[in-house]
Design brief:
Distance between the termini of chain A: 33 Å
Oligomer: heterodimer
Strand content of chain B: 15-25%
Shape of chain A: globular
Distance between the termini of chain B: 50 Å
Order of helices and strands of chain A: HHHHHHHHHHHHHHHHHHHHHHHHHH
Largest sheet of chain A: none
Largest sheet of chain B: 11 strands, mixed
Shape of chain B: globular
């Protein structure tokens, strides 16, 4: 059975990941590949390598990626540790609040920050101070991106702590270790795989992020790789081979980071969930409880309230040039959403449907992959692992072009291209690494004896998987699926490129409003969508919790 | 249900139109055409760059029947590649010669100007050079010509008419703190909020739309001249629906179609249709004719070096 399963997984990975990447690679090597010709091989590379901008683009990208990874670590680790170790009032609420940065398209967040912080922005209109020079600098870019990306570290750390519990740290305490020593020598090392995975994810997310660098980079005089790739595709003549080659370079960096992380954490297997019944007792913070909440409240203020406040406000202002005055407030942008021949509503239901589909598909596939990979160390399994994580290293625009190159061919008897299914494929490809990574780090904490124990007692492989493994990794899997849902519901770059003519998603709708200069209407749509998807996710969590009881 | 209905929309009978913005215009043109002929139209609307990238990536199996771009060069280039179906619409009679060829014809025309915030406490600029005044120190943005074909046309137009003096102007703008920021909309938004006072070379129709919404900005066409950007409309040779495509081009150039173009604050391509904004006959134009793409990339490179990192 496991051979059949391996085959099935490999087939899925082939279709979702390997083939689009192969076609991109062919495009990079054979500049006329999109016309179906193999001539002039490799002719696109020399001009690309001689481009004087290339090295500054690299330095900028690595600097931003490193900065965001470090920032996410500094912000996500303490918050995640507090969440995972202590009984926190309103824990579920904080989790949900930290999901919000994921639900908002990065370019909207960047634009909201701009409207709030730039000269004559909302903050200056209210207080007389502006942060123009901070915002349009590499530190500003790192800050904005960190506030958007740090939740991956937060969730990785807190989920892993919640799963492993603190039994081992207590053992240390019983043997005389101080609370700090217990954390430093026991708890922290146990979460290390999850932490490293989270930080790596933050790094790759940052180097493949397009929205924020595009919105802030020009004024900060910083061109990042993704923007460089996009520029090659933005003006006539379109440079497909150049864009493909740059993307491959970008993926090599992300792959290197991934290998590094594997090397760093690969040797130390940590078993925290042994299967013995554990009382999931979280520490009581006692009188310090309010103090504990302070960092959470501050982070929410910065990462959620400020940018989203600016976003909502922009949707409520009659005109931007009118500024913050009571008589400049209006609901007309919100009203207009419902009068555009149902466009807004159609875009919303398309996005929600796709996001749901992507979450289910990547959740199921990601779980199976992580589980298979955790079971052995054969070359086949390592390849499976690598393939499933590869899309995290690819900028969205490239996956989009790869999918066109692959599927828009005469030789396919049926093709998802030019139907809505191509969007499901692209979201699933882009987001598959999330469940794989989250479930993998959860699985690495499970004792390797759990499944054999179940088998010894007569459970079939499938039963062991369903009754033992799945429930134990469920928190991580669900958190990852939520994130997939959140990101897919607002994905812009591949949607713009792949949406079949006549179909709109939420992000496309908003982007078109901006492009026509209707900032207010775009922001109104962003606000409504955010509230709607938030309520959907809230309903889902509540339902699941009730079900669990 | 949503998925199946979306799939059914993409049936083989419909006409597929790839078009640059504005989205409201493409939608109303599609609706009007469908009402008149009963032919369903699928619109793919994005920036010119995205539309062309998709066209390029789809070469192996082309999907588009009609293409409307915001940059005249793209049409010239596609024609040289032999991708276009020649077609002379009967309705194109009143379109001036410079806006039509045997293979493509303008849908509408936009112009580039200065967008100026009227509440910015700066003197109203009358010429491009006015933006180099101390009042506009650190107060001007401009779209990235690498992302906006029309801005590049403006640079070329200025270079053709003023030679090296044009580059002195760009140097002075740079010295005065002008920043280059993304595509057109990204350069205009800061001026709406008042973070900057003016845009050097913005596409006019987007701002006319902003003004109609009540924003306190003004479009100024400098006395020393500017450029217009005709928006070429063409039929692809690979089209399986050439007859319907021709009907669509006819419709866009009909009275009804051109009035919709005017309603989107563009200049109609036909001279006999009125608009509520200055027409290209009323704006002083710079000479834009150029010797091809080598000049474009040279100008782009020089400007990029000046305003890039």
């Amino acid at each position: 059975m496991s051979r059949a399963l391996n085959g099935l997984i490999l087939l899925a990975l082939l279709l979702l990941v390997a083939l689009p990447l192969l076609f991109i690679m062919l495009q990079a090597l054979f500049p006329h590949f999109s016309e179906g010709s193999w001539r002039d091989a490799l002719s696109a590379l020399p001009p690309l390598l001689n481009d004087p901008q290339l090295s500054s683009m690299w330095l900028g990208t690595l600097k931003i990626g490193g900065g965001v990874a470090l920032g996410s670590l500094l912000l996500g680790l303490p918050l995640g540790a507090l969440r995972g170790l202590f009984r926190l009032p309103g824990a579920a609420l904080w989790d949900l609040l930290f999901l919000i940065p994921f639900l908002t398209p990065p370019y909207i967040v960047a634009l909201s920050w701009t409207l709030a912080l730039q000269r004559n922005g909302y903050i200056e209109q209210l207080t007389g101070i502006n942060f123009d020079s901070l915002l349009f600098s590499s530190s500003g870019m790192i800050l904005v991106m960190t506030l958007n990306i740090f939740p991956v570290v937060y969730f990785a750390v807190s989920r892993s702590l919640l799963a492993s519990g603190q039994r081992l740290a207590w053992v240390a305490r019983v043997h005389g270790a101080s609370a700090w020593r217990g954390f430093w020598h026991i708890t922290l090392p146990l979460t290390l795989p999850a932490l490293a995975g989270g930080v790596l994810l933050a790094f790759t997310l940052a180097i493949e992020e397009y929205g924020v660098p595009a919105a802030l980079g020009a004024q900060a005089r910083l061109t990042l790789m993704t923007v460089g790739i996009e520029t090659k595709l933005a003006d006539w003549p379109i440079d497909l081979p150049g864009a493909a080659s740059l993307s491959l370079m970008l993926s090599v960096v992300a792959l290197t980071a991934w290998l590094l992380q594997r090397k760093l954490t690969g040797s130390s297997d940590v078993t925290a969930v042994s299967g013995k019944p554990v009382n999931q007792e979280l520490a009581q913070a006692g009188g310090l409880q309010t103090l504990l909440l302070l960092p959470f409240a501050l982070t929410v203020l910065l990462a959620v309230v400020l940018p989203l406040g600016a976003m909502t406000l922009s949707g409520l202002l009659n005109t931007l040039s009118g500024g913050l005055h009571l008589n400049n407030l209006t609901l007309r942008h919100f009203g207009a959403l419902f009068s555009q021949q149902g466009d807004a509503l159609a875009a919303f239901s398309t996005s929600i449907g796709l996001a749901l589909g992507a979450a289910l598909l990547t959740g199921a596939l990601g779980f199976l992959i992580a589980w298979r990979v955790s079971e052995g160390k054969t070359r086949l399994l390592a390849m499976m692992d690598g393939l499933s994580l590869l899309p995290a290293a690819m900028p969205g625009v490239v996956i989009g072009v790869g999918l066109i190159l692959l599927w828009n061919r005469g030789f396919w008897p049926v093709s998802p291209y030019n139907t809505i299914w191509i969007l499901l494929l692209s979201y699933s490809c882009l987001l598959l690494p999330w469940p794989v990574r989250y479930v993998s780090s959860a699985l690495r904490q499970l004792a390797p004896t759990l499944e054999p124990a179940a088998r010894v007692h007569g459970a079939s492989r499938l039963q062991a998987l369903r009754l033992i493994v799945l429930p134990l990794v469920a928190p991580s899997l669900l958190a990852a699926m939520m994130m997939v849902f959140a990101v897919a519901s607002r994905e812009l770059v591949t949607s713009l490129l792949l949406a079949p003519a006549g179909t709109q998603t939420v992000a496309i709708f908003i982007w078109r409003q901006f492009e026509q200069g209707s900032v207010g209407q775009g922001m109104a749509m962003a606000t409504v969508t955010l509230l709607a998807s938030l309520s959907l996710m809230l309903a889902a969590t509540t339902l699941m919790r009730r079900h669990a009881k | 249900m949503m998925l199946t209905s979306a799939m059914m929309i993409n049936d083989a009978q419909a006409l597929t139109v790839y078009t640059a913005g504005p989205g409201s215009l493409s939608k109303s043109l599609a609706a009007g055409f469908e009402k008149q002929t009963g032919i369903k139209v699928n619109i793919f609307q994005a920036t010119t760059g995205k539309v062309m990238a998709r066209l390029e990536a789809e070469q192996a199996n082309p999907q588009a029947d009609v293409l409307i771009s915001a940059s005249w060069d793209t049409a010239e280039d596609l024609q040289q590649r032999g991708w276009l179906l020649p077609f002379n619409s009967a309705n194109a009679e009143k379109v001036p010669d410079q806006f039509k060829t045997a293979h493509y014809v303008a849908q509408g025309v936009s112009a580039l100007g200065i967008v100026w915030n009227t509440q910015s406490n700066t003197p109203e600029p009358k010429t491009w050079q006015d933006l180099t005044a101390p009042a506009f120190k650190d107060n001007v943005t401009t779209p990235d010509p690498a992302l906006s074909g029309a801005s590049l046309d403006l640079l070329i137009g200025l270079q053709n008419s003023e030679g090296e003096k044009a580059w002195q102007l760009f140097d002075q703008l740079k010295a005065n703190g002008m920043v280059m920021s993304g595509p057109n909309a990204q350069a205009v938004t800061p001026v709406l909020q008042g973070a900057k006072a003016a845009v050097f070379g913005a596409v006019d129709y987007v701002t006319y739309n902003n003004i109609a919404q009540g924003e306190s900005v003004k479009v100024i066409f400098p006395e020393n001249g500017t450029v217009v950007a005709p928006r070429p409309m063409m039929i692809l040779k690979s089209s399986q629906h050439a007859d319907d495509a021709k009907k669509f081009v006819d419709y866009v150039l009909s009275d009804e179609g051109q009035e919709q173009v005017a309603k989107a604050w563009l200049m109609p391509a036909r001279t006999d249709i009125n608009a509520q904004r200055p027409l290209f006959t009323e704006i002083k134009l710079l000479p834009t004719h150029q010797d091809g793409s080598s000049e474009r990339s040279a100008v782009l490179k020089r400007f990029g070096t000046l305003f890039g990192q």
